[in-house]
Write a structure and sequence with these properties.
The chain has helices at about 1-15, 35-45, 45-65, 75-80, 90, 130-145, 145-160, 170-180, 185-190, and strands at about 70-75, 95-100, 110-115, 120. It is an alpha+beta fold. Mean pLDDT is about 85; it is low at about 1-25. It is globular and about 50 Å long. Strands 1-2-4-3 form a four-stranded mixed beta sheet, covered by helices on one side. It has one domain (about 1-185). The structure holds zinc ion. Zinc ion binds next to helix 6 and helix 8.
Amino acid sequence: MRILTIAVFACASLVASPTTANAESASFGIPWRIPLVRLSKHFGRDAMKGFLRPLVHGYIEFMRDVALKDAQPLTTAEKKHLAEFFPLRLIDRVRVTLLGVAGLGNSSAGAAAYGPDLIVVKRGHRTLAVLKHEMVHICQYDKLGIAAFAQRYAEQLVDTDFVYGKVPFEVEAHRFTASGRGRFSGILGSCE
Ligand SMILES: [Zn+2]
């Protein structure tokens, strides 16, 4: 039970931080990475993935319950900027909620996407670059669905030993955010 409790809180922290544009330079999952890696070594990666898949999915659904009801559309200026890279069908559907923290247990998280239509932004961190990063995750959700996104993200966390900068979904988001121009569909193969 204690292990499960640790895993629940660790997961809450992790899910919040990985989709954060400004966490790249911070130690990923700050207090949680080392115990999670130890758990992964103790139980094995397959067992760790078994823990994390439902936890990540559950946390995404929890955040949707918390944040979706007060969420608002992107601004006209944000939509105009993002339309260069992403389809209007998603841009018009996305809602944004500002919270004191973007993720439970990780105050460094600047933003996170929770599903194909919801971005949570930490107050003071709402920039076009942050939103562009999160829109990549919106496209990933759009392609996979919430359940499969959560499963893949959990597996990627375990496979990278919880190093945020190596998680493939994050690498994709960081590279595209830094790339400057072009349609994301050219990289993802969908999201138009
Ligand atoms: Zn991200």
